[in-house]
Amino acid sequence: MRLIAAxxxxxxxxxxCVAQPPRKEEEDPKAKTGRAIDIESFPPPKGExxxxxxxxxxxxxxxxxxxxLVVGVRHAPIALHPxxxxxxxxxxxxxxxxxxxxxxxxxxxxxxxxxxxAAGISAEPTGRSFQIDPRYKWSxxxxxxxxxxxxxxxxxxxxxxxxxxxxxxxxxxxxxxxxPDPASLFTFKILPAHRxxxxxPPLGSGPYAFGSxxxxxxxxxxxxxxxxxASTRPRPPAIREVRFLVSPHPVDDLRRGLVDVAIEERSxxxxxxxxxxxxxxxxxxxxxxxxxxxxxxxxTAFSGDGGRAMRRAVAxxxxxxxxxxxxxxxxxxxxxxxxxxxFPANTWPADAESGPLDxxxxxxxxxxxxxxxxxxxxxxxxxxxxxxxLACARIAAQLAGLGLPAEAKPLATAEYRRALAEKSYDxxxxxxxxxxEWFEPxxxxxxxxxxxRLDAALGRAAVRAEFTAKRDAYRRLHRDFRADMxxxxxxxxDAHVVLRRGVEAYPSADRIDPLHPLAEIDRWRVTR
Length: 528
Prior knowledge:
Elements: H1 2-10, E1 68-73, H2 88-97, E2 102-107, E3 110-115, E4 118-124, E5 127-132, H3 146-155, E6 161-167, E7 170-175, E8 212-216, E9 219-225, E10 241-246, H4 250-255, E11 261-264, E12 281-285, E13 289-295, H5 308-316, H6 320-329, E14 337-338, H7 360-369, E15 377-382, H8 386-401, E16 406-411, H9 413-422, E17 427-433, H10 442-448, H11 452-462, H12 467-484, E18 487-492, E19 495-499, E20 503-504, E21 525-526
Parallel strand pairs: 1-10, 15-16, 15-17
Antiparallel strand pairs: 2-3, 4-5, 5-7, 6-7, 8-9, 9-10, 11-19, 12-19, 13-17, 13-18, 14-18, 20-21
Helix pairs in contact: 5-7, 6-8, 11-12
């Protein structure tokens, strides 16, 4: 938030916030589309019981990497491609495998951007020019070049950018729309121009490569060995291998010594005795992830103008603070926040005067004004998300108390995604990650739902160039949202970053971005 405050004091907002094209979340994640990479399509060789780690050559003066970092994840990675990544494990894996021109770095003042693939950056009247560092190589040994950036802009369909090159390692990117901080747009992952087929194992220039998904000791791991040419990088990684351990309770596995890093939204005290060892470090950090209920507006009860009352009834009938206390906060009442609209509470675009959404009297009035559904409402969620199950069960009970019979319905991950794609649900528990502190909501409305009125309000906000006008426009959008309620905002959850002794994270545990905790993995150390 200090970043935003600095912009306000400067008195200007240089342009519009532009998000990357929305992810196609409703597609079947295992469909062979040519862009989605299903890691199950290339398992380790038959009979292999041991992970084979490619040996990385050691450059002059480069200390050999050592140690293994084990990260707890709810799912094994599914789609290892920037356009199809869906789960946390997918996104975290991308940060291991792929590089970008610049990368975000947490600072005491906010978020800064530093060169990654780019050895040098220069400003141009319409954008930025980058000099690609010759020390970066793809995991097949091919040097990263300007052609890779050109190909990525084309393949990723980045409509806001126009790339050109006049030298093998120099590329210029013109921005078609001005943005508040141009550097923030160049964090997209660069893909190899010489490997247009995305159906096989990913070819990346990051510090790690995808190795395999394997089972050891009855537990499933996704293994990422240091890529063979990592030692030529300006900053070779110090950790030899990263593993993702699939775990329903990563903090519990960390207590048992199976996991080094766990990120948990529920308080660690939820897991009871034995308590975490004294040498385990816990840092609580804010997150840009919001949770909401997607509403299936194809259902008669929720469709058109007549369904507006029922949508509002659901939104106002949920007692968010009660659920936060019972499921996530436990003995930490200062954590987490209930949403009052599409933006996280206490952020610059949120309208503080709107007040809470929780309003039992208003919810009952909307139930009377609307057409109650003929059948019990279903709230679907992924069955391996324990906290989601508890929260959805409480939401269902609260709605039933208003005269809207509802039930929480757990679905296996594949079935859950199919339900989203086929619109075979009434309400669905989902989340959305704001890309940065500008909280640009365009992709949220594209994914979660919108109305003509909100689209018009979003358009009016988008043309504001001065920060105060932009802020006021977004706050009006926040208020307008409550009238139409195309989806139901729930809460924004702080994250607990839990590290075992011997793990040195960068910059520090309390400044890790919980949405991209491994973005600075080449600076991490394992000293145990």
